[in-house]
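Thread title: Can someone regenerate the structure for this chain?

I was given the following input by a collaborator and told the matching structure tokens would be attached. They weren't. Posting the sequence so someone can regenerate them.
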Amino acid sequence: MTTATTARGPHTRSSKLLLLVMVLYALYTLVPLAWLLISATKTQAGLFGSFGLWFSNDFAFVDNLVQTLTYRDGIFLRWLGNTVLYVVLGAGGATLLATLAGYGLAKYRFPGRRAVFAVVLGAVAVPGTALAVPTFLLFSQMGLTNTPWAVIIPSLISPFGLYLMWVFASDAVPAELLEAARIDGAGEFRIFFTIALRLLAPGVVTVILFTVVATWNNYFLPLIMLSDPSWYPLSVGLNQWAAQASGVSAQPIYNLVIMGSVLTIVPIVIAFLLLQRFWQAGLSAGSVKQ
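Best answer:
Regenerated them for you:
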């Protein structure tokens, strides 16, 4: 009995330590979100006259929502539409290109394949902010700055998404299955869209979420590319509101900035909740022996 208790001792201490780390991590993650949600229910005066992690006397969530959507003739809705446009075309196109390229690089052999692999790895290591200024100079010479294409076209390139699909496709799509389809007379595009794409679904969903989040939260690129507020995404537009609120002679609208931030994260949360089942399906598929 003593031996068993002694053996369980280190394991119990490790479990408690891991539990403490997870609790601290959960607090670190959830406390800012709780502050944001609670602050969205406060008026401009309530933000500075009450404790940040508790509600004030005036519950102004609905009023803040209406003011956010109608402020400056509903410019927030325009920014929301711009962001959706950039995500659908930019992130959607990046996912399609990464899936096609990753599958092709994983399943076809051609001269220079290793060189392409090295270039992709190098591109993954380069931060996007380092390419923002050269991209601006290039698009300026092409006359595309201050247009939606200045945000959409750079968003089509996702080196990490390509690398992820390359690695995932190498194991997720059996070469024997592709050969059997070719013997049956199926063309390469038919094989990809009817067979390979279904097997690649978990990886595609992962790339979608990465590219959607990156495009949705993209700030520096549209900041330097766009000068017309009517083409701003939410990230740049809300920052403009925050700068306006902190100006010397500007109208304080911190309550609108906070409510706009809440509305900005809602679509991302919904996307994660809707697409997580594909991850679960992909994980369980590899755990069952055929």
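The chain has two domains: 2-62, 65-285.
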